[in-house]
Amino acid sequence: MRAAPLAAVLVVAACSGSGAVPRPDAAMAAASGVGLEELTRGRQVYVTSCSGCHRLYRIDEFDRVGWESAVRDMAPKAKLAPAGRDELLGYLRAAAR
Ligand code: HEC
After folding, report:
1. Cβ 68 under 6 angstroms from ligand 1
2. Is 79 in the pocket of ligand 1 (CB under 6 A)?
3. 72 within domain boundaries
4. Rounded Cα gap, residues 19 and 76, in angstroms
5. Which of 28, 38, 40, 90 is most buried (CB neighbours < 10 A)?
6. Mutate to test the pocket of ligand 1, among 71, 77, 79, 88 (most ligand atoms within 8 A of CB)
7. Ligand 1 centre and the CA of 5: distance in Å?
8. What is the pTM of this model?
9. Is the CB of 52 under 6 A from ligand 1?
10. Domain count, the chain
11. Does 25 fall in a domain?
12. Going residue by residue through the chain (97 aa), what tens digit of pLDDT does each one get?
C-alpha cells in the first residue's frame, strides 16, 4: 500500500508547517499595526494554550470574526490571563484570512 507513507508525510507537514499557524513576520506586523514581538507572543499563547483539548485549528479555517467569537468562548476554558488573551487576539486578527 503506497498511500500510507505519503499520508504520514502530509500529516507531519500540516502540523509543523508554518502555513497552518503562520509565524509572524515584518509584513504581518506592518499590515496589522501590532509589533512583531507581541504577535510572536500571541502565536506562542495559541500553540501552548489552545492545543490541550483539541487539535490546533489552522488559522485560515476561520476569519477574524470567527476567531474573535472563538476566543470569547475559549479564553475561559484555557484560563488565559487578560494579557495573554489580548496577545492571542492580536495574533489571530493579524493572521486570519
Ligand atoms: C478545556 C478544553 C479547551 C481548551 C483549553 C480550548 N478549547 Fe477550543 N474547544 C473546546 C471544546 C469542547 C470545543 C467544542 C465545543 C464548543 O464549541 O464549545 C472547542 C471548540 C473550539 C473551536 C470551534 C471549532 C468549530 O468548528 O467551530 C475553536 C475555533 C476553538 N475551540 C479554539 C480554541 C482556542 C483559540 C483556544 C485557546 C484560547 C481553545 N480553543 C482552547 C475545548 C477547549
Report:
1. no
2. no
3. yes
4. 27
5. 90
6. 77
7. 30
8. 0.85
9. yes
10. 1
11. yes
12. 666 655 554 444 444 445 799 999 999 999 999 999 999 999 999 999 999 999 999 999 999 999 999 999 999 999 999 999 999 999 999 999 8
The verdict on residue 87 lying in a domain is yes
Whole-number pLDDT of residue 20? 95
- Ligand 1 mean position to 53 CA, how many Å? 7
* Other CB atoms within 10 A of residue 92 CB: 23
pLDDT score of 58: 97
Residue 7: the pLDDT is 53
Range of the domain at 59: 21-95
Does 35 reside within a domain? yes
Residues 6+ apart with CB under 8 A from 56: 15, 20, 21, 46, 47, 50
